[in-house]
């Protein structure tokens, strides 16, 4: 096997025997086969109009290969068969040999992989929008264009142009998902979320799929079962159409990489709706449920019914059987805090934009940091905790995605009535951050790069790759990135990105803060 798509890749180079994520060689090989089948589907679709089934498979097939999503070789095999059927319906296409996927000149491989990983990330976002009934033909068409391009040879300039074009399409995709989420569940409002788990039966739901949460809330209403979010599901508490359910009680645990410890012996079922699944330990494997694109061998999977509704009865019955804790249990975040805040998406922040602009003009807010992105297991990630702790009192920290668990339970006080740490949402809510930055730039009549704003990002998997490409396509410069740089960026490709966009790898919080504020 060969895989180097995520930040925890073996030795910072590539997983070749088994994935650090737990993916074994047979699943890696099936995922490569699926990727090649999608390239062939894109070739077959060239100049034709593929139907909705092929469109759906493009998204689902790419999403299934994102890190920590699907470890089940049978489910990947099913997808391969379906993709092949769609390819034949379109008249077939020349095979793309699997050994070509990772085998090439180092720069060509780097550029091709960057596009492929970005598209895997965008597929997850397009999928969530699709589930909520929102699609955009431009985005769908770009999946075919991009996958076809991955099967072709390109000059470095052509490949870089493709990456920038992709970044703009991914912005469109994040906007579509933002519209899908806000039209279905309303605009998030600032909300305090306790980390206490009340006694009695409960269910933990993790991942990004808000529709799964909505259906679970409906099906558990009046049953004496409480629902707790975990990981990237935390921002759900801010949405009016979700927070109205009184049994959506709070948040359990922290970010994805702590799940094997946090779920150890937990007296409740855990529903995984998207990526962030780690191989379950024996002490809780019997209570892990997957749904949607997620899969793990011998784990119960909840499929969608014909009416679009999922029947979560097996999860509900498990919650009743396990019964929860006999007494209320207080949990804390990694810094000892007992509650966190979320819901500062674009609508909420722009609602107080006047206050922010005034505070910046008056010098009360001297700098805005966006400290966002992924969490992960590397010890170096405590950089982000230290960085946030050390930001000056006259600065604001916007955050998003699961990296926030490094500091979201800290109380850093307030500026002008606003908390100094504001959680904008999930990774896809990077869209909110872009909208806020663009509006601030308009108000100050300058470019985003000239605002007193610095992006300090952490990456782990492929959604972070697509977001980074969007930021670059928007010509956002001076991004600090860590904890390490992607293994799939060759030195030459990295040099281009550094030269064009001044991407800087994080060093120490003190040094970086000195550079940023100096
Ligand atoms: Fe991923 Fe990163 Fe959303 Fe996390 S991009 S790892 S679970 O921040 O958030 O899916
Ligand atoms: Fe390794 Fe990451 Fe690939 Fe898993 S997803 S096999 S950890 S590079």
From TrEMBL:
Q: Where in the cell is it found?
A: Cytoplasm
Q: Which UniProt keywords apply?
A: 4Fe-4S, Cytoplasm, Iron, Iron-sulfur, Metal-binding, Oxidoreductase
Q: How is the cofactor bound?
A: Binds 1 [4Fe-4S] cluster.
Sorted alphabetically, the Gene Ontology BP terms of this entry are:
response to hydrogen peroxide
Regions that span the bilayer: none
PANTHER family attached to this UniProt entry = HYDROXYLAMINE REDUCTASE (PTHR30109)
Supply the name of the protein: Hydroxylamine reductase
Organism whose genome encodes this protein: Tepidanaerobacter syntrophicus
């Amino acid at each position: 096997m060969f895989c180097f798509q995520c930040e925890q890749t073996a030795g910072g180079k590539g997983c070749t025997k088994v994935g650090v994520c737990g993916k074994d060689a047979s699943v890696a090989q099936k995922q490569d086969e699926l990727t090649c089948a999608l390239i062939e589907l894109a070739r077959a679709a060239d100049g034709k109009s593929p139907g909705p089934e092929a469109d759906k498979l493009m998204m689902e097939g790419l999403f299934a290969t994102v890190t920590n999503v699907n470890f089940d070789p049978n489910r990947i095999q099913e997808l391969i068969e379906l993709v092949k059927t769609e390819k034949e319906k379109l008249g077939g296409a020349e095979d793309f040999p699997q050994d070509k996927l990772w085998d090439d000149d180092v720069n060509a491989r780097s550029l091709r992989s960057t596009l492929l990983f970005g598209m895997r990330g965008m597929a997850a976002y397009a999928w969530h929008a699709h589930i909520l009934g929102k699609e955009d033909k431009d985005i769908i068409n770009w999946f075919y264009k991009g996958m076809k391009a991955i099967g072709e040879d390109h000059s470095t300039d052509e490949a870089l142009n493709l990456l920038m074009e992709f970044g703009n399409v991914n912005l469109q995709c994040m906007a579509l998902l933002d519209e899908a989420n806000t039209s279905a569940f309303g605009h998030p409002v600032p909300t305090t979320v306790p980390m206490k788990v009340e006694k009695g039966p409960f269910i933990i739901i993790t991942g990004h799929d808000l529709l799964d949460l909505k259906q679970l809330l409906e099906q558990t209403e009046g049953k004496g079962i409480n629902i707790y979010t975990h990981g990237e599901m935390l921002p759900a508490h801010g949405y009016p159409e979700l927070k109205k359910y009184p049994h959506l009680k709070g948040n359990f645990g922290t970010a994805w990489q702590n799940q094997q410890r946090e779920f150890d012996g937990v007296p409740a079922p855990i529903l995984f709706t998207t990526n962030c699944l780690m191989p379950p330990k024996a002490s809780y494997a019997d209570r892990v449920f997957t749904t949607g694109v997620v899969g793990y061998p011998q784990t119960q999977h909840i499929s969608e019914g014909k009416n679009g509704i999922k029947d979560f009865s097996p999860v509900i019955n498990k919650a009743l059987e396990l019964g929860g804790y006999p007494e209320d249990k207080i949990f804390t975040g990694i810094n000892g805090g007992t509650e966190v805040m979320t819901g500062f998406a674009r609508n909420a922040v722009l609602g107080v934009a006047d206050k922010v602009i005034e505070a910046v003009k008056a010098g009360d807010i001297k700098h805005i940091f966006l400290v966002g992105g992924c969490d992960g297991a590397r010890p170096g990630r405590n950089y982000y905790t230290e960085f946030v702790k050390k930001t000056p009192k006259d600065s604001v920290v916007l955050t998003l995605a699961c990296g926030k668990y490094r500091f979201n339970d800290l109380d850093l006080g307030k500026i002008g009535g606003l908390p100094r740490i504001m959680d904008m949402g999930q990774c896809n809510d990077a869209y909110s951050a872009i909208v806020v930055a663009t509006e601030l730039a308009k108000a100050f009549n300058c470019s985003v790069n000239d605002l007193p704003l610095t992006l300090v990002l952490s990456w782990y998997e492929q959604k972070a790759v697509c977001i980074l490409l969007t930021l670059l396509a928007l010509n956002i410069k001076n991004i600090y990135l860590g904890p390490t740089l992607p293994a799939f960026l060759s030195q030459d490709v990295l040099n281009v990105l550094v030269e064009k966009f001044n991407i800087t790898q994080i060093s120490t919080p003190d040094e970086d803060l000195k550079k940023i504020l100096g």
